[in-house]
């Protein structure tokens, strides 16, 4: 069994202001996405300036934060937030939904694309490979907060999290997600998108791969205590929300290559 590293969730304080690692991870993810986007800006649209790219990153960041928080409130713990609405603003304590953040990014990018003459999927194919870095950083934030841990296990890398009332060795599921949703998904999308692909294909690949990775990890991750399992003694809210992603992602890839087959491909 590995020892959980005791990391203070507060990175540093500036007088009464406490800066949390969870928030810093979001800043690292957003900054990294901006840097990666800069590397491919010319191949995406050589007429775009760095300022316009910064505007896109800003809009997408608003979608992540607002959508992620509202998604968690709506999907995972609506009654608690209705009872105490002030909790909605306490994002440093965690409580962000990827699926809500995804909806927020889609909406903001759609609005941004309309204002800048870019088709929705054209823009999303550019944005999709940038997302895994933020996802990976977010999972590190979850790990530092000692939240969203996994099921009890006897694997050699199990950890006892200080927030676990039972103090049982558990899967460090946050790190599994960091690797799959962050590192592996980034590698897949970055390599896949480095060559010309039909419009919608990169977006579809993101939805498909993320949905599969998240669905798998949910088997070793504890469900949110206020929800538990939704069906069959194993189906979680995360898995329910990932099923449409998998189906839509596969459908987008198939439709993309049907509409715009690769040169030389049989039809």
Automatic annotation (TrEMBL):
PANTHER family in the record: PHOSPHATIDYLGLYCEROL--PROLIPOPROTEIN DIACYLGLYCERYL TRANSFERASE (PTHR30589:SF0), PROLIPOPROTEIN DIACYLGLYCERYL TRANSFERASE (PTHR30589)
Pathway it works in: Protein modification; lipoprotein biosynthesis (diacylglyceryl transfer)
Gene designation: lgt
Transmembrane segments: 20-41, 53-76, 96-113, 120-140, 174-192, 199-217, 229-257
Cellular compartments per GO CC: plasma membrane
EC number: 2.5.1.145
Similarity remark: Belongs to the Lgt family.
GO molecular function: phosphatidylglycerol-prolipoprotein diacylglyceryl transferase activity
Alphabetic keyword roster: Cell membrane, Lipoprotein, Membrane, Transferase, Transmembrane, Transmembrane helix
Name of protein: Phosphatidylglycerol--prolipoprotein diacylglyceryl transferase
Keyword Transmembrane appears in the UniProt entry: yes
A GO biological-process term: lipoprotein biosynthetic process
Domain of life: Bacteria
Native source organism of the sequence: Azomonas macrocytogenes (Azotobacter macrocytogenes)
Record function comment: Catalyzes the transfer of the diacylglyceryl group from phosphatidylglycerol to the sulfhydryl group of the N-terminal cysteine of a prolipoprotein, the first step in the formation of mature lipoproteins.
Residue sites binding a 1,2-diacyl-sn-glycero-3-phospho-(1'-sn-glycerol) per the record: 139
Pfam families: LGT
């Amino acid at each position: 069994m590995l020892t959980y590293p005791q990391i203070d969730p507060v990175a540093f304080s500036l007088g009464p202001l406490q800066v949390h690692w969870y928030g810093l991870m979001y800043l690292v993810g957003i900054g990294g996405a901006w840097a990666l986007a800069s590397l491919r800006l010319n191949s995406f649209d050589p007429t775009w300036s760095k300022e316009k790219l910064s505007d896109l990153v800003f809009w997408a960041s608003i979608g992540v934060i607002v959508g992620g928080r509202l998604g968690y409130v709506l999907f995972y713990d609506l009654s608690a937030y209705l009872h105490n609405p002030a909790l909605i603003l306490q994002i440093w304590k965690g409580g962000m939904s990827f699926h809500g953040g995804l909806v927020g990014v889609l909406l903001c990018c759609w609005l941004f694309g309309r204002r800048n003459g870019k088709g929705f999927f054209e823009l999303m194919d550019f944005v999709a490979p940038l997302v895994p870095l933020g996802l990976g950083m977010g999972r590190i934030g979850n790990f530092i907060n000692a939240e969203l841990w996994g099921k009890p296990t006897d694997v050699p890398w199990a950890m006892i999290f200080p927030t676990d009332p039972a103090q049982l060795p558990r899967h460090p599921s946050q790190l599994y997600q960091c690797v799959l949703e962050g590192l592996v998904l980034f590698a897949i999308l970055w390599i896949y998108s480095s060559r010309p692909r039909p419009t919608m294909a990169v977006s579809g690949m993101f939805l498909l791969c993320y949905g599969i990775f998240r669905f798998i990890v949910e088997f070793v991750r504890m469900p949110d205590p206020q929800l538990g399992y939704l069906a069959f003694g194993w189906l979680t809210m995360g898995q329910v929300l990932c099923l449409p992603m998998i189906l839509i992602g596969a459908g987008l890839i198939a439709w993309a290559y049907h509409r715009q087959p690769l040169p030389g491909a049989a039809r």
